[in-house]
Design a protein that fits this description.
alpha/beta; 187 residues; 30% helix; 7-stranded mixed β-sheet; 11 strands; two-stranded antiparallel sheet; globular
Amino acid sequence: MKKQQRQQLRRDMRQQRLSLSILEQIQAEQALCQQALDFVKQHNAQTVALYLDFDGEVPTALLIDALLKRDVTVCLPRLDAERKGHLQFFKLTRQSQLVTNRFGILEPAFDETTHVPLEAIDVLFTPIVAFDKQGNRLGMGGGFYDRTLQNWQAKGFLPVGIAHRCQRVDALPVEAWDVPLAHMIVV
């Protein structure tokens, strides 16, 4: 029953964010940029993990550009080829090559010289399908970020969810593997 609830919620929330207008997405991107830059500055973050937006997620290009201009190291996730269901993070540079993964999402091409371990990341911004006021997040269902967020306190980074206001629900049907977030930026 819980699995069906989560799948239906994913469909509904993805449809809601996909139905946002271009103007609403531009406004969300601008709001995210300002709030995230303030958060990064407040926490004196030097290395930030972000994602390239997909499927109606809050756009991140403006924020990525602003962080790079401020000499903040930006890392992007890549599906780990050796550990199924896990992510690795790689430093983004102006010369970084992006490739499309099996889900149709852009990610950095593998380059060992730009690999960044989780312990070197200060703030990890994560995409969300749905969230509640307790900080619970519902992702796309693959568990990639749940695995990344496991024991985040010991790894030393702050996990921050990014979502549109329309993705908020009163309470999520949570599973044992779900990892609540420390912070949220809702635009």
